[in-house]
Design brief:
The protein has 3 helices and 5 strands, in the order βααββββα. The protein is an alpha+beta fold.
């Protein structure tokens, strides 16, 4: 599958009292990378005018190494599978070659009333092509 990477610098606001990135902030980093992955494919304004949204349904995350103040991290997005109304991504956070954390994220597509709906065709195609690549 094709992998997208997004750089994130660790700031003091991302860390706990011990200077280590707080565990929940890894999920924020993953969220930013997903948003930039969609933006890189021309899907930037769906929240405003698309009539649909993506919500996280399930996250399985494993922490391998601490990330520290001032680290430059790379957060990847790799589509694993795609159904009609949901998809699964693998996201990894690296510092250089060192794996900091990896996650499997399941996302569902909802309509404006927050009911499940089919992925828009262009997004379904984007994800499916990345899975097969």
């Amino acid at each position: 599958a094709m992998t997208f990477c997004y750089p994130i610098r660790v700031y003091i606001e991302d860390t706990d009292a011990g200077g280590i990135v707080y565990h929940a902030n890894h999920l924020k980093f993953c969220e930013r990378a997903r948003t930039e992955w969609l933006r890189a494919h021309g899907i930037a304004h769906y929240l405003l005018d698309g009539g649909f949204s993506f919500v996280v349904h399930h996250v399985d995350i494993r922490y391998h190494q601490p990330a520290l103040m001032n680290d430059l991290l790379s957060v990847s997005v790799e589509p694993l599978s795609c159904k009609s109304a949901s998809f699964v991504l693998r996201q990894r956070i690296h510092r250089a070659e060192i794996l900091v954390a990896d996650a499997k994220v399941s996302l569902a597509c909802l309509d404006e009333q927050l009911y499940p709906r089919r992925l828009p065709p262009h997004i379904h195609t984007l994800i499916q092509q990345a899975v097969l690549a």
